[in-house]
Amino acid sequence: MTKGLLALGILFGSLLVATTSQARDTQHMLSIEEAMNTPAAQERLDPSIRFFFADSPHGEVVARHGNYITNKKTNAFNKTDEEACRWVMLSALLGLQERVKSEGGNAVINIESFYKRHPMVSRTEYECHAGALMAGVALRGDVVTLR
Q1: Of 122, 53, 137, which is closest to residue 90 (Cα–Cα)?
Q2: Which helix (H) or strand (E) holds 123?
Q3: Per-residue pLDDT tens digits for 87-123
Q4: What domains can you pick out in the chain, each with its CATH number?
């Protein structure tokens, strides 16, 4: 009986290590426009706050309030990677939006993906990483007041 339990414990431990070491971390490059035009984004993003990705043209900067990072995760269980990524992108944008409000600005410029502190600059796409249980988006941008 003891040898059987020991063998079962070793087998279970081996399966746990194999499963953990093969955790999924799939990189996705997804459309910023699609993420910002979901019904949830349209409902929750404040239209008085503007978001400018990469080197997108914007109005004159009259005040700079700092460079900020938002790093958000969401539950990806029972969602497609794209659904989870859109949801966590909205969460990241809401994080920047709250920073704009707290700093007294009206925009975020030079927004880039910043997953694991690696910049990915694009006007049209953001980087999201999805696994079996979690999805994550990190953004970095400059909070400003535009004329």
Answers
A1: 137
A2: none
A3: 999 999 999 999 999 999 999 999 999 999 999 999 9
A4: 25-146 (3.30.110.70)
